[in-house]
Design brief:
about 140 residues; five-stranded parallel beta sheet; alpha/beta
Length: about 140
């Protein structure tokens, strides 16, 4: 199996999770500005809701790399939303990309909400999640 980690963040919250995944797995966590070089069986993709949708930058990354992605495993932070599967499903509709059942999300600091998140417990939890995915 081949794996890659890509993420998009505006606040730095999802980047913290991506770097914890990198620390756990040894897979470089790069922003979605870095296209995939080779076919990837499993893409761990870090993103969050922005204005109740997936950011256009993430959508563009998936579209450009569509022939190199086998499956997407989502992770990210959010002030309120717990899953990115619905907006992702719209992006991959008609593409040969599957969406994993497994997904990791935790609260992210947003204004006065969730101060200090992701915290040490969140980072530990995402590492445990990544260890189950990357075998």
């Amino acid at each position: 199996m081949t794996y890659a980690v890509r993420y998009y963040t505006k606040s730095g919250n999802t980047e913290k999770l991506a770097k914890a995944i990198e620390e756990q797995t040894g897979i470089p966590a790069l922003t979605v500005e870095s296209d995939l070089e080779d076919k990837t069986d499993v893409l761990l993709l870090g993103c969050s809701y922005y204005a109740f949708d997936m950011d256009p930058v993430v959508k563009a990354f998936i579209t450009v790399n569509r022939d190199k992605i086998g499956q997407i495993v989502l992770f990210g932070t959010s002030a309120m939303i717990k899953s990115m599967k619905k907006p992702l499903a719209k992006v991959v509709d008609g593409l040969a990309i599957s969406i994993a059942e497994e997904e990791f999300h935790c609260p992210g600091s947003f204004g006065p909400m969730h101060k200090g998140r992701p915290n040490a417990d969140d980072l530990k939890a995402v590492k445990e999640f990544a260890a189950k995915i990357v075998k």
